[in-house]
Amino acid sequence: MVLDADGVFADVIHNAHNGALFFKDPETLLGADLWDIFSTAQADQFHATIEDVLETGEQQHIEYQLSLDHGERYFEARVTPVGGDNAGRVLWLAEDITQRKRRERKQALIERVFEVSPVGIVVVERSGRISLANERAEELLGLEREELTQRRYNQPEWNIYYEDGTPIPNSEHPVTQVLDSGEPIFGFEHWIELVDGSERWLSSNAAPILSDDGTVERVVVGLDDATGLKQREEQLEWLVGTETLADVGGWELDLETDMIEGTTGMQRLYGTPDYNPTLEEAIEQYHPDDRAAVRDAIKTCCETGEPMELEARRQTAAETERWFRLRAEKTVRNGTPKLRGIVRDITQDKEREQRLMVMSRILRHNIRNKLTVIRGNSRLLKEALTSSEPPVDTAMGHIDRIESASKELDSLAERARTFDRVIERDLRGGTVHLQQVFNDVRDDLTEQHPRVTIKVAPTDAEISGDRMAIDLILEIVLENALEYSDQSDPTIKLTAEESPLGQATVSIDTDGAAIPDMERNVLTSEIEGPVAHSRGLGLWAVMWLVRRLGGSVTMDEDHDDGTRVELVFPQARSE
Hints:
- By secondary structure, the chain is an alpha+beta fold.
- 41% of the residues lie in helices and 29% in strands.
- The chain has four domains: 2-100, Beta-Lactamase, CATH 3.30.450; 117-231, Beta-Lactamase; 350-424, Helix Hairpins, CATH 1.10.287; 431-570, 2-Layer Sandwich (Heat Shock Protein 90).
- The chain has helices at 26-29, 34-37, 40-56, 98-116, 135-141, 145-148, 174-181, 227-245, 264-270, 279-284, 291-304, 347-386, 392-423, 434-448, 467-484, 517-524, 538-548, and strands at residues 2-4, 9-11, 60-68, 71-82, 89-96, 120-125, 130-133, 160-161, 185-193, 199-210, 216-225, 248-254, 259-262, 308-315, 321-333, 336-345, 431-433, 453-456, 462-464, 491-498, 503-511, 552-559, 562-570.
- The strands form five sheets. Strands 7-6-11-10-9-8 form a six-stranded antiparallel β-sheet, sandwiched between helices. Strands 2-1-5-4-3 form a five-stranded antiparallel β-sheet.
- The protein is rod-shaped and about 170 Å long.
């Protein structure tokens, strides 16, 4: 376009290829001035440029933006004086630079994103040299940008390691893998030792920049600080480990949906692959005598906000009964009222309390009785020996009774020591072949009691547990059967059957044995009080040991005119 000193369009030079560059029909521009076409401010700007060019006689470059019907366009103009010193005209050469402007803006945005990215970004050349790094990369790697760009990615000074402290070899470095394969690498976790001696966990994502022929020209590495995440993972592992060691599980009850969500600790405690029951489903798993207390405690906590705490018995997935202590408090999360609490397995604590109580009462009871016998016979023996003519037979009777009571005390003490040694062992470790146990028990008892007949049915059953504990259980049950048998030549039969539920049932059948109610109640109601003293530790030990092994014990006195005791144990796990 040719314009004169007043900003009037004197000529328009165009062809079929550049017609689109014009914002008006070229023919309509002739004779019009800048103010006819543009806004006053823009026309004034253009006219000032023309005046400067005519005054100085020098070409000027300007950029401007026009709002056209088909959108915003950017132009670059070279304004040059034409026609000699006194012509008073300029040649206005306009070029549409919209695409270039857009590329420049995009490039500027990319550069800004590169710099302000919350992820550290490093660009590695094919040669291995680091050519670019952003500010976040400087922070994460502990080096100034000039120091970074003077290094190669695989220099030993980086000190990068796997989690176990093993140095990462060059062949396994994510950049090396991308350069070799041309495929991106995501989530490569490692830690580095910084120049100040501190350690930092990083998660690296590396991707290739490919040339036209598909070869890798550069590798872009994104670095994210994973130190906090690793610390949280370690803390979570610690918490999970603590849950396991403490026999603790966590749970949360949504008071709007009545759904419970449990931690892995709850799954482990209750023996289920997951734990997401409704409130009522969870309560139904507790002992019938404890359900009302659990339900009332939860209701009170919900209504008053006071923390709850109680102890209750619950059936696990393995159908064993365990004691649990429940604690919870009311809270609000994301606007939803919830009950959040923990459950701890206190079965061993309860058993320990019960053992102390029972052993104290039984031992005190039996020791007192035996000492009474010893004291009484000692007094009578003394009287007999001080008489003028000591009756030998009478004295020997007193001595026999003293000796018998002493032996019984010694036997009771030994049984208590044996039980203590067994109960403190890890009872669930190992595999026990029942056929071998049956044979050994039969051989031992028939040697001690020649009149007894013990029949052992062949079995391939294997159970999970401690051999010493299982030996003691069978020994006690068989001795009780013999003690209370009314047969002169009693017969005992040992059998074992495996079930599809992963359990093995050991049946001990005796003919004519009738265990007294006081002893039988130990297995049915676990009663032990000042009035209901069982004679010894035997069946208490059986009940405690079987439960510790994850099994159960029942008794049927109406079985084929005899008594059957059934011991249920978990089967040994196959490899």
